[in-house]
């Protein structure tokens, strides 16, 4: 490990002691076992590390994504479909040595990448593990699978560590962020972080087999009753990142966790709401990426935004 990498790890680990790794800025000393919003100490916890085939086509590919489902979350949306892991604390503690070993193991199994899901609150430890794993032979890309609720300053520290950002852009105004995640500043923080992601990772690129190599995929999940502010978000992406990012527009919303029975979030999106999202996508001039069919979680991805026929 070179001097620059060692300094980067030291800077990041210092942030655990008065934690400001995410926009919650809790200020707790996680090295002393204090818990902030994410509910985690400075020791990595994860529920599963395995070959996952449920991501966008260039991430899952044919051999799967080496996915690390990390415990805890800095956003905690009320409709979270992985709440057992991100909110209820399911997972086991992993040493850096164990995490390095697991990454090398799934690489040996043939996965296309290492995919850290909900990584923000463990950034210092994950950066350290990636750099050590690379020194021991890790060569596949690193995917930062994030809610988007990030500090731009932390994302900048990931330059040359993270190859691909799989970033949510969830809420386009303070009302949606506040109502769904108690985060009225979500769009402000996420939009600034996205700018740094694009600056450091560059335009989205795939290899000759259609597998992601570098760049940014922006995911947007359409919510019922306009809570995701989908038209505004898509206009923002079209105005600022049209040629630099690929979009994954998702219809798969289902009421999970606290959203069940909620007056606004307690149902799937309607066909009219989905058509409004598709119209907004076209009006924004976004033409790179994937959309889901309205069957949602039971449906597949369409190969591009203009295709009318799904594929299996």
Task: Please provide a written account of the structure.
This protein has 312 residues and is an alpha/beta fold. It has one domain: TIM Barrel (Alpha-Beta Barrel), CATH 3.20.20.70. It contains ten helices and ten strands. Strands 1, 2, 3, 4, 5, 6, 7, 8, 9 and 10 form a ten-stranded mixed β-sheet that branches. Helix 1 runs antiparallel to helix 5, helix 4 packs across helix 5 and helix 9 packs parallel to helix 10. The longest helix is centred in the middle third of the chain and has 16 residues.
Outline of this structure?
This protein has 312 residues and is α/β, with parallel strands linked by helices. It has 10 helices and 10 strands.
Average pLDDT level? 93
Quickly give the CATH architecture. Alpha-Beta Barrel
The fraction of residues in strands falls at 15-25%
Gross geometry: globular
**Terminal residue distance:** 44 Å
As for the CATH topology, it is TIM Barrel
Number of domains: 1
- Uncertain stretches: 302-312
Number of strands: 10
- Oligomeric composition of the shown chains: single chain
Which descriptors apply to this entry?
single chain; 312 residues; alpha/beta; TIM Barrel; 10 helices; disordered C terminus
């Amino acid at each position: 490990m070179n001097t620059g990498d060692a300094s980067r790890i030291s800077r990041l680990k210092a942030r655990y002691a008065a934690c400001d790794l995410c926009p919650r800025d809790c200020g707790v000393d996680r090295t002393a076992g204090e818990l902030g919003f994410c509910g985690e100490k400075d020791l990595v916890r994860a529920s599963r590390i395995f070959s996952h085939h449920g991501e966008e086509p260039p991430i899952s590919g044919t051999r799967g994504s080496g996915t690390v489902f990390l415990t805890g979350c800095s956003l905690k949306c009320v409709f979270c479909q992985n709440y057992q892991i991100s909110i209820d604390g399911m997972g086991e503690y992993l040493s850096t040595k164990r995490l390095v070993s697991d990454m090398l193991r799934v690489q040996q199994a043939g996965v296309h990448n290492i995919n850290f899901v909900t990584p923000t609150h463990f950034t210092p430890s994950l950066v350290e593990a990636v750099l050590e794993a690379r020194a021991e032979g890790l060569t596949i890309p690193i995917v930062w699978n994030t809610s988007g609720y990030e500090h731009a300053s932390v994302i900048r520290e990931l330059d040359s560590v993270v190859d691909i950002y799989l970033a949510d852009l969830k809420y386009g105004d303070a009302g949606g962020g506040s109502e769904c995640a108690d985060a009225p500043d979500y769009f402000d923080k996420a939009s600034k972080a996205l700018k740094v992601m694009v600056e450091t990772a560059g335009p989205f690129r795939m290899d000759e087999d259609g597998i992601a190599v570098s760049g940014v995929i922006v995911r947007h999940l359409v919510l019922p009753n306009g809570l995701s502010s989908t038209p505004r978000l898509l206009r923002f992406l079209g105005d600022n990142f049209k040629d630099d990012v690929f979009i994954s527009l998702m219809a798969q919303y289902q009421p999970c966790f606290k959203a069940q029975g909620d007056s606004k979030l307690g149902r799937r999106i309607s066909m009219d709401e989905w058509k409004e999202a598709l119209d907004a996508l076209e009006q924004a001039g976004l033409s790179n990426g994937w959309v889901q069919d309205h069957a949602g979680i039971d449906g597949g991805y369409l190969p591009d935004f203009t295709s009318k026929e799904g594929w299996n």
